[in-house]
Amino acid sequence: MKLAVHKINGKETPNKVDLSNKVFGIEPNDHAIYLDVKQYLAAKRQGTHKSKERSDVKGSRRKLRKQKGSGAARVGDIKNPLFRGGGRVFGPRPRNYDFKVNKKVKRLARKSALSYMAKDKNIIVLEDFNFKAPKTKSYIGLLENFDLLNNKTVLVLSEKNNNIFLSSRNIKTTKVILASELNTYDIVNANKLIMMQSSISEIEKNLN
């Protein structure tokens, strides 16, 4: 698959880039995408939830009334879960939600997500560029040139670039990521995938 290379002003250049069919043209596997996205979101959960159980509630351990003869149900101390202010039964405890997904499945998921983007023509290739200084206005201008200001976008870089990263930081609908850190969730969550020309070879190298 061949795509035209654009300048940051939105105009096409005579150059074209050839996308590998082994990465951008496979038969997508929806279940692999599901597993990878589920694992990504699960790993982001803090898992710090905690409620107080009987042993955590402050209160006396004294038995409230004698076991028999009162005519009422038997009870223990004031921390009984049936009482207001008592401990909770089987409440949430801190835990780790992360789970394992095999490397081959994760690689297949990224290839599938990229293939969907390529099939739907949602990939834009830019020639390598840099901003003279970090300015949000510069990045907004880039998005406006492609009419993407109100869309979710992901810009993929081949190497770290602070000027571009800092310029995009205040825009909620966009994200700048390195080719080595590209993940399935960011791909499927974006409306358009903007790729530096040099990042394509890096992605193909990582996924082949």
What kind of sheet is the major sheet?
6 strands, mixed
Radius of gyration in whole Å, from Cα?
Answer: 27 Å
Class from helix and strand fractions: alpha/beta
Mean pLDDT score: 94
The geometry reads as: elongated
Instruction: Please tell me the total number of domains.
Output: 2
User: What portion of residues is helical?
Assistant: 25-40%
CATH superfamily annotation of the largest domain: Ribosomal protein L4/L1
Number of helices: 7
Low-confidence runs: none
Tally the beta strands.
Answer: 6
- The CATH topology of the largest domain is given as Ribosomal Protein L4, Chain: A
Sheet with the most strands: spatial strand order? 2-1-3-6-4-5
Order of helices and strands: EEHHHEHEHEHEH
DSSP strand (E) fraction? 5-15%
Supply the CATH architecture of the largest domain.
3-Layer(aba) Sandwich
Distance between the ends? 16 Å
CATH hierarchy class name of the largest domain: Alpha Beta
Key terms for this structure?
208 residues; alpha/beta; Ribosomal Protein L4, Chain: A; 2 domains; six-stranded mixed beta sheet; 33% helix
Q: Mind sketching the topology for me?
A:
Layout: E1 2-6, E2 12-18, H1 21-24, H2 30-44, H3 103-119, E3 123-126, H4 136-145, E4 153-157, H5 162-168, E5 174-178, H6 184-188, E6 192-196, H7 197-207
